[in-house]
Specification:
Layout lengths: L2 E6 L5 H18 L4 E9 L2 E9 L5 E7 L2 H29 L9 E9 L3 E9 L27 H11 L3 E5 L5 E6 L5 E5 L2
Helix pairs in contact: 1-2
Length: 197
């Protein structure tokens, strides 16, 4: 693990270096050893600022603090980093757990083991239900759209161009022979032709 120190209007002392290393050891226990660290210590108008940036694989975590002395600023910055590292670790673990098994849509009972502490474990039964794919609605909403109906007979190519021009998912027209046709845009974006009897 590399640590890069930068002092702005501040001389970095061995005591501050030791304090930074102690804080990084705590974070190393949470995230492991694979991250780079940049420490910027600055003094501006009697305010001591500490900015500590660690960069694990999924993006940087930054702890910034400001206090009357540098020891307090470094400790506050590490408190912020510690909270963010815990959040980062739990978010990463929850994403990893979710990616393991996919839901197949059928009702099933599964046992889920959760570790409590370091040595105890508990088993919790979980019931998964299948919900209907189409929701039942009681009210019907009707919308009268005159833009979706052609007033004159047209060829299929003209109807497709007109449906695209009017930006309609459903377009009703008559072909040159007088037969009623319906153009329908599917969810994939393709146009379907429905011939009325």
């Amino acid at each position: 693990m590399n640590v890069e120190f930068t002092g702005r209007q501040y001389e970095i002392t061995p005591a501050i270096r030791k304090e930074v290393e102690t804080g990084l050891n705590k974070i190393r226990k949470i995230l492991g050893d694979k991250f780079e660290t940049k420490v910027i210590l600055a003094v501006e108008k009697h305010r001591h600022k500490a900015e500590i940036t660690i960069s694990p694989r999924n993006g940087p975590i930054v702890g910034v603090a400001q206090a009357t002395d540098m020891h307090s600023a470094v400790n506050e910055a590490f408190d912020h980093l510690h909270k963010q590292a815990l959040k980062y670790k739990t978010k990463w673990l929850s994403k990893k757990r979710k990616a393991g098994k996919k839901f197949n849509g059928e009702a099933a009972e599964e046992s889920l083991e959760t570790s409590v502490g370091l040595s105890e474990s508990a088993t919790v039964s979980v019931t998964v239900h299948k919900f209907p794919s189409v929701a039942k609605t009681t009210e019907v909403h009707l919308v009268h759209a005159k833009d979706s109906v052609a007033l004159r007979p047209m060829t299929l190519e003209e109807a497709i161009k007109e449906a695209h021009f009017r930006d309609r998912d459903v377009f009703v027209f008559r072909d040159p022979k007088g037969k009623v046709m319906v153009l329908h845009r599917t969810r994939e974006g393709k146009m379907e032709l429905i011939e009325a009897p």
